Amino acid sequence: MEFNPGLIQLLKDAQTIAALTGAGISKESGIPTFREVQTGLWARYDPQELATAQAFKRDPELVWEWYQWRRGLVSEAAPNPGHFALVNLAKQVGSFTLITQNVDGLHQAAGSQDVIELHGNITRTKCFDQHHPVENYGEIEGLPPRCPQCKSLLRPDVVWFGESLPAQALEDAFRAAEQAEVFISIGTSAVVEPAASLPRIAFQAGAVVVEVNPDETPLSPIAHHNLRGLSGTILPDLLQQAWP
Ligand code: NAD
Predict the structure, then answer these.
(1) Does the Cβ of 26 fall within 6 Å of ligand 1?
(2) Would you say the CB of residue 156 lies under 6 angstroms from ligand 1?
C-alpha cells in the first residue's frame, strides 16, 4: 500500500505515539474476534453473553469451559507481523505506549514491553469472590476449580462486560491518549467503552488519529487517516516506508 507522504513524515517526526489494539490484530494469529461466528461446539453461543458475571453465576461450568477452549486457542497461537511491527515502532519513537483490549498476551509474546492491558489476561486466573490470584489449582474436583484460599469458584482474570477496568491501566491509557501526537487505533470495532473513548480523547487533545481496519467503524469519520486492510500487512508496510 502507498501511504500519504504526510502521514509517513508525521510518524518520523513524532516524539509521542500511542496505539490501541483490539481483537482484529490477533485475527491473523487464528484467534477469532467476538463479532464473528464461533466455530464447532461454541457456534450456538453468543460470546458477549458468556463474558459476563451473570453468565458465570448462572452456569459457571459453561463459562469456564468456554474460556478453556479460548485458552487452548491462545496457547497454540503465535504473534503475527502486526504484533511484531508494533515492537519495531516502539524502537523508533521517543515515547511509545501500547494499549490493548486483547486478553491473549500476544503483544508480550512478540516482545512488546509495558503493554497496558485494559481487559486483563486470559492466561491468568483469580477467584470470583475475593479476586485472589491463583496460579496452580492442582487436582480439580468439579468445574470450575475452587480457590485454595477462600474456596470461591475460579474465573479468568479478564474484565467481563459490565465490570470495571483496572484503575491504574485506565489512568495510564487516558494519560497516553491525552499526550499522544499520533494515536493509532488498530483492529478494534471502537464500540466497547471506555476503550472506545481513547482515540476520541486523543483527537480532542490535538493528536492525529489513524485507524487500521478492513472495515469502517464509528471512529472512521473522525480519523485523519483511514488505512483499510489487515493489520498484519498494513503495519509492517507503514514501518517499512517510514523507516526503510
Ligand atoms: P471486535 O471483535 O469488536 O472488533 C474487531 C475489529 O477488528 C473489527 O472492527 C474488524 O473489522 C477488525 N479486524 C478484523 N480483522 C482484522 C485484521 N486482520 N486487521 C485489522 N483489523 C481487523 O474487537 P474489540 O474492538 O477488541 O472488542 C471486543 C472485546 O472482545 C474486547 O473487549 C476484547 O477484550 C475481547 N476479545 C479479545 C480477543 C483477544 O484477546 N484476541 C478476542 C476476542 C474478543
Answers:
(1) yes
(2) no
